[in-house]
Amino acid sequence: MNSPAIFAVYSNIGVLDPERFQIVLGTVYQPIEPSNFSPASFSLTIYPKDSRDVHIDNFSDVLPLLRTNVVSESISLNFISNSENDTITSNFVLTVAGSYSVVVFFNGSLVSSFMQTITVFPGEPFFPNFQVVRTQYIIKTSEIIDVIVAPVDQFMNSFTSSFQLEMLDLEIIVKDDSDQSLKYPFVLGADNLFVSSFRITKSGQYKGNVFIASHFQIPSAILFSVIQASTVSADTSSIFNMNTS
Fold first, then answer.
1. What is the CATH number for 10?
2. Whether the predicted model's global pTM rises above the 0.70 cut
């Protein structure tokens, strides 16, 4: 366990004699794991002591005044504390990936000597949430197709690193009307999206399915209508341009 952070907070707790009720909220231990994968569980433990460094057994005056504040660039959460095994604990679960600052408030005042930074990473891939950006194509045989997939976890956290790409092992299998198939890999492209680029040189109707590790199929199928470049009419070209806007 990490070294405890000692801090002192003084409050009159709504009584007339503030000196009598000076409270030192003893030790706030850092979360056991400073980083975790979504959903990530963390816990703060608070040992309240009085001004004589004596442990406080009765938390009835202290608990209502304690709050744990967890803040990221996009989220601000507050958690109340609970009494457990002669200590006060603040337990919380974070599901959105990102970096968070954790601070403690007592009676509305920030406990300035304690601040913990924690990081939440995307959790396990949740295949039903995977998003195929586009599912229908009308293309020429001379054109390159870009199939784009946004992989996420159960809480819609996006995967963003090349390591995660290798872990997921995404590939698309494209079949024609006669059930002949070709396989194409994905690479990490712009905006943290996975892209598979390829060309179909024979006209016809094709169906593509995206797989993870050759076993798990993303629900959305992709349809390709491929036309010979020399026979594409002006009207068909217009439809193609509309679909790529």
1. 2.60.40.10
2. no
